[in-house]
Amino acid sequence: MEEAGDLEISGVGSNSTINDDGGCAWTDWSPVIDWGPLSADDDFRGLVEAMMCDDNDDVAHAGVTRMAYDPYWNSNPSSTTTSTGTPPAEEPSSSDGGGGGNDDKGLRLVHLLVAAAEALAGPYKSRELARVILVRLKELVSPAGGAAGCGGGTSMERLAAYFTNALQGLLDGSSATACSRQSASHLDGQVGDVLAAFQLLQDMSPYEKFGHFTANQAILEAVARYRRVHIVDYDIAEGVQWASLMQALVSRKDGPPPPHLRITAVTQRGSGTRAVQETGRRLAAFAASLGQPFSFGQCRLEADERFRPAGVKVVKGETVVLNCVLQPPHAAGAATTRGAGSVASFLSGAATLGARVVAVVEEEGVAEDGNFVGRFMGELHRYSAVWDSLEAGFPMQGRARGLVERLILGPRIAGAVRRAYRATGEGGWGEWMARMGFGRVGISCFNHCQARLLLGLFSDGYQVEEDGPNKLVLGWKSRRLTSASIWSPPPPAPASVPPANIGVSSSMEDSDFLLD
Amino acid sequence: MFPSKKPTMNSHERPMSCVQGDSGLVLTTDPKPRLRWTVELHDRFVDAVTQLGGPDKATPKTIMRVMGVKGLTLYHLKSHLQKFRLGKQPHKELNDHSVKDASALEMQRNGASSSGIMSRTMNENVHITEAIRMQMEVQRRLHEQLEVQKHLQMRIEAQGKYMQTILEKACQTLAGEGMASGSYKALGNQGVVDMAAMKDMGSQMSYPSLQDLQLYGGDQLDMQQQMDRPLDGFFPTNEGICLGKKRTHPYSSNGKSPLIWVDDFRLQELGSAAACMGTQEEPSKSDQLQLAPSVIDSGMDMDSMTDVYETKPVLSTDSMGEKKYEGSSKLERPSPQRATLPVERINPMIRGGALPQTRNISYG
Predict the structure, then answer these.
(1) Of B218, B146, B160, B216, nearest to B191 (Cα)?
(2) Leucine repeat II (LRII): where is this region (chain A) (predicted)?
(3) Are strands A260-267 and A294-300 parallel, antiparallel or unpaired?
(4) Which one of A102, A162, B192, B254 is CB 3.0 to 4.6 Å from A413, fit for a cystine?
């Protein structure tokens, strides 16, 4: 890419320590990257971190303490060997010298990605520049098999490939391209594949289970004495969360028979209704197999995606619970992501419905920056952590991982990048709920213990910690990834207020939590 | 351009220049205002925390209120509380442990006075009682943990069963035949996989069900190859899980430790990797070879693998059928003892396909 070297950027001089072998000085590119602290870690995420972090190590705050990178597993994530001495031959066309060149290559990829993001949305607004960078990126990642899945290329390369595709999607303009590409791969009736990949992901990592189990346990504790339970689920997906809840309800040793469980799934108008009905049938069948009294219903969102509490049928004597799992959808069902206004209207409905408890599972570490590049870096961090976590547990270049990456994580990355591009940067829902007057419901010891045990089944790098009395955060090696928090609705208030308009800062008393 | 990811103390505090505040706080004159946690201040802190019910229940805000110390900010308390919590981690149940220590110190300072001796004796009794209470607490926690573990196991299983129903239906929809999808059953039965079951299921696998799993990489794989690789679908998952766990799997029904399975599954990983081989070039081949380091005799070079592969069964056991024997002197090297089981597994692959491009290692 010699022409790239000719373009001039009013950049700072770089004190890079990177050896550039390709002949084009990419190190002169990005004016904002501080090349000083870069070191050749074995940890891919470490590379990203090293680029970005100021050292704040002496400050411990209530959240996560940033730990030094321990090159875990003693494995270079870019290599696929286990304990043999045979060097990997998976970079046939790479311009690196193999071995030690992997780190450099990883760094280069990251820098290219960031440069491309900057070009796309930065002050230079140069789309041509972005195009050029993406071409170069594709050269670097695709010969090794990159996004084509099936285990070609190194871990870093694959991750970079997905991000490259995501950026390319942005460049190509509308979401139409991305969606059509996505649906093309789906239309072959590969829904089953996606589900299987999803199952694989669940087996390999605790992300989904953590959210579900924590929410379920909190719900169990909240409805312990009631005979009828009604759960309004914002995004039922395949209904996986409720299987374990039903099992827990049925096996309560207290004596009283399991309460009648009713689940209302909030659906969008039109699309996916059949899928939700199918889910309902499945849940009913499962409940029947357990002997759990069960019924299922749907509640449609309005045309503007807002939730209307009146649309939910509430039976006298039942206790209502709101469940809001906001994880990025695996590509199977919800291709549409509902906007923040929709979620806000749902959460606000808690008061109207008289819900006993509201369980929220959301992604953590959502960058609150005002600009795209910051959010893009945040997503890069996040997915590199996810990548690392999968790599740590499953270092083999198995097909399973390729599958998961291609069918689940790849689309998620594309979606995340798209959202980062469009969104104006909102914080997590927790803060919003606190401002809106939601009370915090404490996480019990049981729940916390359960989360710890669950993580114990997976790699050592997973950590769970409390963030306040009502929130558990799951992270990979000090990178917060997902969180589950429990709330009680505020006293009924007039109409839902969209998050952007919050000027009221209601004082959040710490004593407002109920503990078991 | 690159935002720091967490708030720093510095950005929120005004630099203080006084050395001693009204309340006896000792602040340094550093440009970064740091609070020195003196013993007295720490004692007050611990008192406040105990009053509030322990480090887990106390929050910086409430501690601040209770302590009533001027000049103490939430940020001081946040970090101190966190350190406190971490420091107490191994002794979580002993809430009053540090308080006890402080009082013990006081006792010693009283020296040999009679009142000192009296109070020391009383304190010892208190210590003993405390020790007993600690022990009971520990036991209680252990018991709790067992309960949680039991429930967790059931919940994971339930979730696995449910996933299985989803996958079954999906399978049926896809292939249009009511197949048993045994593979998914095994995946689903214990959400976290029971490896003994996996191994048993392996040989009875009905490969049409795995067809689906292999369709995923479909654009790269040759269908014919997939047919002959009935075991493929599983093993990435199995092996992964088996490698990911460092202790004996709580759900495995036999007592085998995960390590024993690794070799076998690595072999089968080779099988699945071989399926990928169809359209890939050298890189994956080297992948395969590296995947089973215990398998490959390092003396072998890669080119000879095909020969060895096909002729191995003849050497290993007599029960193996005659394969086309290509005669090679390299055959003496591999040790036949380990060959039996894995070779049985892989033989179907050999026979089924006789695919020229496969380069599986046949011994384990």
Answers:
(1) B160
(2) 278-310
(3) parallel
(4) A162
Of the partner residues A51, A92, A458, the one whose CB lies closest to the CB of residue B283: A92
Q: What is the pLDDT of residues A377-427, one digit of tens each?
A: 888 989 999 988 888 877 765 777 888 888 888 888 888 888 788 775 566
Q: Under DSSP, is residue A483 helix (H, G, I), strand (E, B) or coil?
A: strand
pLDDT one-digit tens code per residue, A46-101: 556 555 544 343 333 333 333 333 343 333 444 333 344 444 343 333 344 444 56
Q: Which of A254-263, B119-128, B144-153, B163-172 has the highest mean pLDDT?
A: B144-153
- The whole-number pLDDT of residue A322 equals 93
ipTM over 0.85: no
Report which secondary-structure segment, H or E, holds B54.
none
* Nearest CB neighbour to B217, from listed A88, A240, A399: A399
Minimum distance, in Å, between the CA of residue A494 and any CA atom of chain B: 30
Residue among A268, A43, A75 nearest A159 (CA)? A43
A95: number of Cβ within 10 Å:
15
Give the Cα separation of A241 and A367 in Å (integer).
27
Residue holding tokens 């709101």?
A322
Burial class (CB in 10 A: 0-12, 13-18, 19+), B37: middle
Q: Which of B66, B53, B76, B32 is nearest to A61 (CA)?
A: B76
> How far out from the chain centre does Cα A157 lie?
20
Q: Which of A359, A356, A351 is nearest to A324 (CA)?
A: A359
A308 to chain B, closest Cα gap in Å: 30
Interchain contact A396–B (C-beta under 8 A):
yes
A66 in contact with B, Cβ within 8 Å: yes
The reply to whether A93 touches chain B by the CB within 8 Å rule is: no
Q: Residue A259 has which token pair?
A: 């309460």
Answer whether A189 touches B (CB < 8 Å). Answer: yes
Q: Say which residue, A237 or B136, is predicted with more confidence.
A: B136
Residue B280 pLDDT exceeds 60: no
pLDDT in tens, B204-258: 333 333 344 444 443 443 444 444 444 444 444 443 333 334 443 334 334 333 3
- What does A55-98 look like in DSSP terms, one character per residue? --TT---SSPPPPPPP-GGG--TT---SS--PPP---TT-SS-S
B241 touches chain A (CB under 8 A): yes
User: Six-digit token pair at B184?
Assistant: 């998914």
Confirm or reject contact between B286 and chain A (CB < 8 A): yes
Contact flag B286-A145 (C-beta cutoff 8 Å): no
What confidence category does residue A473 fall into, taking pLDDT thresholds of 50, 70 and 90? very high
- Spell out which residues of chain B touch residue A451, defining contact as CB-CB under 8 Å: none
Dihedral of CA A154/A155/A158/A159: which sign? negative
Per-residue pLDDT reduced to its tens digit, A91-150: 333 344 444 566 788 888 888 888 888 888 756 567 788 888 888 888 888 644 444 444
Cross-chain residue pair B244–A406, CB shorter than 8 Å: no
CB contact under 8 A, A66 and B212: no
The structure tokens listed for A238 are 């395949």
